[in-house]
Design goal:
Layout (H helix, E strand, L loop, with lengths): L1 H17 L10 E2 L2 H6 L2 E7 L10 E7 L2 E8 L2 E9 L4 H11 L3 E2 L13 E8 L2 E9 L8 E2 L4 H6 L7 H6 L5
């Protein structure tokens, strides 16, 4: 049953990407195809809003050609740190799925920062060279430097983990 749930969740994420969850905006530009070819490491960070420690969950996903790692924390206290080996072909599938998101970079607006919202950061690397840096401010969107649906990246990368990312994060909560 858990495998079926994981498969359906992954399929739902991929369907969302296929249906176009990102929206191109004036002044935005897609990630160049050459960047995707050179990329050998993907990083994604979700910073939770200001909530009490029992509820606060920030996390990072780091994916290389050989492994996927998730680290979940609450205000600096590590609650989960797991690394999973990738199976043959998973890296290529992950890159292809992210390409389909049509992630766009854009210039940051001049909005005033607001407090309490969640933020997301997304990075692509070739070795130590940064190929793409994107930031999504879910409180003051004009401060964002990329265009993509909120929290869609971890759903797309979810097939690299034994359970959906959201489920792994929720397992660190004390209910």
């Amino acid at each position: 049953m858990k495998k079926l749930f994981h498969a359906l969740n992954t399929l739902a994420g991929l369907l969302l990407t296929t249906l176009g969850c990102s929206v191109a905006q004036a002044g935005s530009s897609p990630i160049d195809g050459k960047v995707w070819t050179q990329t050998d490491k993907i990083e994604y960070y979700f910073a939770d809003s200001s909530t009490p420690p029992d509820y606060h969950r920030s996390y990072s996903l780091t994916v290389t050609k050989t492994e996927a790692r998730i680290v979940v924390d609450s205000y600096g206290t590590t609650l989960l740190d797991k690394t999973y080996k990738l199976k043959k072909g998973q890296w290529a599938k992950a890159v292809e799925a992210l390409k389909k998101l049509d992630i766009q970079s854009k210039k940051k607006g001049k909005a005033a920062p607001c407090s309490g919202g969640t933020t997301e950061s997304f990075y692509l690397y070739a070795g130590s060279e940064s190929l793409f840096r994107g930031y999504l401010d879910n409180c003051a969107d004009e401060l964002s430097t990329m265009v993509v649906g909120s929290e869609i990246i971890p759903r797309v990368l979810g097939f690299l983990f034994p359970k959906p990312v959201e489920e792994l994060v929720n397992e660190t909560r004390v209910w």
